[in-house]
Amino acid sequence: MVHMDIAVIGGGASGVFAARILKAEGHRPFIIEKGKSVGGRLATRRIGEGKADHGAQFFTVRRPEMQRYVDTWIREGIASVWFGEEHPRYMSPFGMNQLIKHAAEELDVILRERIIRLETDGEKVFLASEDGELYVADAVIATPPVPQTLALLEQSALELPPETTAALAAFTFDPCIVALIELEEPQRFGPHGLQDSGLPEGIDKIAANDQKGISSTPVVTVHMTPEWSRSHYEHEDDDVLSRVMELVRPLLKQDVKTTQLKRWRFAQAAHTHPKPYMQLPDYPIYLAGDSFLREDDTSGKTRVESAVLSGISAARALLEKTK
């Protein structure tokens, strides 16, 4: 068996689980992540003495393969059922980011490194970073949101068929603006810490992180709707936060201590791909992510599970090519 060096661009759920599969088969994957931590949209941030999930608030499971991972996490105390019996909503009592940090513990991860160009000599793939580093790999799995991957490919020394470029350009994403609000005293939102109905127009949902069980102090996460987020995305932070507070303040029964703002430009795919990965023609480069859905996925929606399964599928497809 030939042991390959495989570069995985992106340290979200797709990238981490792709790397886990590759490492389990004896290869040498290394994750290159532009941020300061793995996790992607499984994101948790400290605010004051507390903390808040400000990306995915929970995840659901439809596939037995994903359920096996979740059952292991529950036994290890990394995940738990937040609420729901027939279709449980799972969360991490330590914050959603800890799920991916836990999954990536034994992987090689390079943080704060942005890849800006790919080249190949027919045998190896060369990855150039914004900081001038050059990485060499036998294959690449790219897991950023497709618009970011397409931008990378367009500035790389690769020749792509027009139909491939068109297929990638068809992917569209909705943004999400998120406000984190630290309160002076606790306030309940819904029976479990999540309210997604009866809200002012523009607010998608509100999560109380202390009620959820991840924060020692009262911190509320406010997710704005895709439409509201799109219309305000390019505004200055102070203006956006002020407008969010105008909408949410009538719902707050407690005084506000501090506030923060987070923007997700590619929060939810409006267009998904009906296969769990894509290989670029003539190159050992695979694309994966939550917007690549398995053929039998009838939900049509991106989610944590689709990200995990896409990364696994891309890794297995790469392994199949090496047999």
Automatic annotation (TrEMBL):
Keywords assigned by UniProt, alphabetized: Lyase
Boundaries of every Amine oxidase domain copy: 86-319
Entry-linked SUPFAM superfamilies: FAD/NAD(P)-binding domain
InterPro entries noted in UniProt: Amino_oxidase, FAD/NAD-bd_sf
TM stretches of this protein: none
UniProt-recorded Gene Ontology molecular function terms: lyase activity; oxidoreductase activity
Keyword ATP-binding: no
Name used for this protein in its record: Deoxyribodipyrimidine photolyase
Taxonomic source organism: Alkalicoccus urumqiensis (Bacillus urumqiensis)
Taxonomic placement: Bacteria, Bacillati, Bacillota, Bacilli, Bacillales
